[in-house]
Amino acid sequence: MKEYEPRTHLPDEWAKKASCPVCQSRGLLVSHTSGPADRMGCPACQVSFEIAQGFTHIRLMRLPDQFISHRIDLIGVWINPIELKTIVDKVIHAAQFVESPLQPPAAKQESKIYTKSILSTLPKLTQEEATQRALNLTVLGNPPQAIQVVLQPAGASSDQTAIALEELTRVNQKKTKHQTRCFGSSLVR
């Protein structure tokens, strides 16, 4: 990996006109350090970074409070701002489908409204459909808690979900008894 040299001095005027490479907020701040390089920081997401001499790369010195706060592998690594934007966009895109603190609040509200409007137009599931979906989700390795989270927004009522989960328990108990009998009879032979 190519090593870049950080710019030692960053004018405050640049920061005021710049956009954050993580959250895209305008109006950054410069932290004039006694160390080898000044740092730019975003007051909105709290990210802090150094800028390479050629302006082609940045080096994150502090991760933002949201978006990619879990990506400690990015600290101290020179990265192209476009690559960083791609990483952030993937996290935001993934968070649109799951309730997550990584998603910006405005996008969360839009996503919920959009999801509710689509889900309200779907027909309600029958008990048979709810049970079959629960069985299919179990085969895929989903635990009962995840199945419950999936069934209700898909159109199953609380009662249907409870009955489907009870049926899963019965099926699992039958499988366990069958496996115990098969295993036990193979030992006897």
Structure, described:
The chain has 189 residues and is an alpha+beta fold. The chain has 2 domains: 12-113, no CATH class; 124-188. It has helices at residues 12-17, 81-95, 105-121, 127-139, 144-151, 158-188, and strands at residues 29-31, 39-41, 48-51, 58-62, 78-79. Strands 1-2-3-4-5 form a 5-stranded antiparallel β-sheet.
The proportion of strand residues reads 5-15%
Alpha-carbon distance between the termini?
63 Å
Q: Give the SSE string.
A: HEEEEEHHHHH
Low-confidence stretches: 107-121
What is the SS-derived class? alpha+beta
Tally of distinct domains: 2
Envelope shape: elongated
Largest sheet: 5 strands, antiparallel
**Residue share in helices?**
40-55%
Mean pLDDT equals 78
Strand order in space, largest sheet: 1-2-3-4-5
In short:
With 189 residues, the protein is of the alpha+beta class. The protein is 48% helix and 9% strand.
Give a topology summary.
Elements: H1 12-17, E1 29-31, E2 39-41, E3 48-51, E4 58-62, E5 78-79, H2 81-95, H3 105-121, H4 127-139, H5 144-151, H6 158-188
Helix pairs in contact: 4-5, 4-6, 5-6
Question: Key terms for this structure?
Answer:
189 residues, alpha+beta, 6 helices, 48% helix
